[in-house]
Amino acid sequence: MNLDLRDYAVRTDLAVESKEMAETVHGGPLPGVQEQVDEHDGIKITRLDVTDENASQQLGRMMGHYITLEVPGLRSQDTDLQEKVSAAFAQEFSAFLNKIGINNGAKVLIVGLGNWNVTPDALGPLVVENVLVTRHFFELARDQVAPGYREVSAIAPGVLGITGIESSEVVQGIVERTKPDLIIAIDALASRSLERVNTTIQIADIGIHPGSGIGNKRRGLTKEILGIPCIAIGVPTVCYASTIVNNVLDLMKTHFNDESSDGQGAETKQIMGLLHDLSEGERLGLVKEVLEPLGHDLIVTPKEIDEFIEDIANVIASGLNLSLHEAVTPDNVASYTH
């Protein structure tokens, strides 16, 4: 069986997943990718620095800094854990700002990308609803603003199908008039792993392309286009059906191997036939070859998305409030979040 795999790739917006796939192909760690991993209180934090062009091409990711917080326990809707994640996010984000040279006085524009009418895509607008905005106070009564706050504005520009205007064009107009020093863009992403959907937050300094989570890239929000640094914050809320089928086949293979009486997986090969010897890329190519002509390579989101999207939006908003305003503390942050 010969498959043309050039048009097939595992769909993911997460740098950690791109690294995992690239290392599988490469057979080990990639030169030009620096990784640091910490894990505590059920929160796994992975910091990746992609430092050269060759590594960038192998990963399919731009050179830059990436931080990923993975918290499987978020599915349990544990409020104590959510508070810990907000605090960890705030600590990482503050360090991230320092790393890329953003000072405490920098003016910030927060952009909530996505369609507020579509639950898995409503992350950005929901974060905007819950962040502390202060620019109007600085404009109208600067001398009355208490110490410990910075100038923050926020916008949810909608999507092209609703407004008829590219999000990037809306943001570019706002940047020209209000002149922020930094953009923070929040958007929903896609993952290759079911375990990471609804449980992972990614921070990156490379900007963002609205619609990337559903493979519908638009004109980006990047430093090259907007003239100021643009930090992207994303959460995977969807998976492609082909990715899910591929994952299930992999899980079946592992399960049959574990249950095999000889411990060598001979029975697994009998059960799975040709699928047993296909690589992940070949298997995914086969799944897509079957699904796409039928129009069944759907974009799938978990049934709990309604509850989750509110929770994760509050986690990110609380983390942003803590990291952007010194006057906001873990003790009073709840009063700033709706």
Automatic annotation (TrEMBL):
Gene Ontology molecular functions: metalloendopeptidase activity
Propeptide: 1-13
Enzyme Commission number(s): 3.4.24.78
Annotated catalysed reactions: Endopeptidase action with P4 Glu or Asp, P1 preferably Glu > Asp, P1' hydrophobic and P2' Ala
Post-translational modifications reported in the UniProt record: Autoproteolytically processed. The inactive tetrameric zymogen termed p46 autoprocesses to a smaller form termed p41, which is active only during spore germination.
Gene Ontology biological process terms from the UniProt entry: proteolysis; spore germination
Keyword Hydrolase: yes
Entry keyword annotation includes Hydrolase: yes
Keyword set, alphabetical order: Hydrolase, Protease, Zymogen
Membrane-traversing stretches: none
Record InterPro entries: Pept_HybD-like_dom_sf, Peptidase_A25
Family named by the database record: Belongs to the peptidase A25 family.
HAMAP family cross-referenced by the UniProt entry: Germination_prot (MF_00626)
NCBIfam families: GPR
Role of this protein: Initiates the rapid degradation of small, acid-soluble proteins during spore germination.
Subunit structure: Homotetramer.
Name the record gives this protein: Germination protease
Organism: Paenibacillus lutimineralis
Lineage: Bacteria, Bacillati, Bacillota, Bacilli, Bacillales
Gene that produces this protein: gpr
